[in-house]
């Protein structure tokens, strides 16, 4: 059963990598291409990316709130929990009936209203950038730009997705390197932005939050 238009937009931005992090991505670029891209970014930008790597790699669990802005201005909110490596849960506030869960292997979009779910390999979504055991944006991502805007730093990643070519822009606090938001630009040039706030690190994450019922997907496909 197909999701409605709103659910489809939410699914395209967070599940097929998140959310960004929303978007399914191809495999990491070859080493030679990555080295060339790193050289083009320059030493200063390389140091900035190294700071971002250090920030993410120092965090094993994180929880907070998020607000998502869609291409036509629609707004949805909710809470999230991350437990690296591999696990995340996004819960959307009412009236949305969506949950997005990664269990370390897959990313699942659940529609509680219809009691359905869609499943993608975690390795094929942008969420892999946020949930990897060790994050290295220089080595593992096609970083095309690093820019500063006042107290904010933006890192742009270009990827090919199952929905077409897309762009992921991560925004950090330039001083603390704390993640502030990410924007997914799809093949049609439409932007979806997810801002995160009230962040807490080192939280206790209940493993049950990240459980996936694969049997539900099997039964639905029969």
Architecture overview:
The protein is of the alpha+beta class. The chain has one domain (5-206): outer membrane lipoprotein receptor (LolB), chain A (Clam). 24% of the residues lie in helices and 39% in strands. It has 5 helices and 11 strands. The protein has an 11-stranded antiparallel beta sheet. A hairpin with a 2-residue loop joins β4 (98-103) and β5 (106-111). The protein is globular, with a radius of gyration of 17 Å. It starts with a helix and ends with a helix.
**CATH fold name:** outer membrane lipoprotein receptor (LolB), chain A
CATH class identity: Mainly Beta
Quickly give the structural class. alpha+beta
Q: End-to-end distance, in Å?
A: 12 Å
Per DSSP, the total helix count is 5
């Amino acid at each position: 059963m197909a999701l409605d238009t709103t659910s489809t937009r939410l699914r395209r931005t967070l599940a097929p990598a998140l959310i960004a992090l929303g978007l399914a991505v191809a495999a990491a670029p070859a080493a030679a291409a990555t080295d060339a891209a790193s050289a083009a970014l320059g030493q200063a930008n390389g140091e900035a990316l190294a700071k971002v790597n250090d920030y993410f790699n120092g965090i094993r669990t994180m929880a907070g709130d998020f607000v998502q802005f869609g291409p036509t201005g629609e707004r949805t909110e909710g809470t999230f929990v991350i437990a690296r490596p591999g696990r995340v849960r996004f819960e959307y506030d009412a009236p949305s009936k969506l949950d997005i869960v990664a269990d370390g292997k897959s990313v699942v979009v659940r529609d509680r209203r219809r009691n359905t779910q869609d499943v993608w390999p975690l390795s094929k979504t942008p969420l892999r950038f946020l949930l990897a055991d060790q994050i290295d944006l220089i080595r593992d991502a096609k970083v095309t730009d690093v820019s500063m805007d006042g107290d904010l730093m933006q890192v742009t990643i270009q990827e090919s997705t199952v929905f077409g070519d897309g762009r992921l822009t991560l925004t950090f606090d330039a001083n603390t390197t704390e993640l502030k938001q990410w924007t997914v630009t799809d093949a049609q040039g439409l932007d979806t932005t997810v801002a995160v706030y009230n962040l807490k690190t080192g939280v206790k994450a209940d493993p049950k939050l990240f459980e996936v019922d694969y049997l539900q997907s099997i039964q639905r496909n029969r």
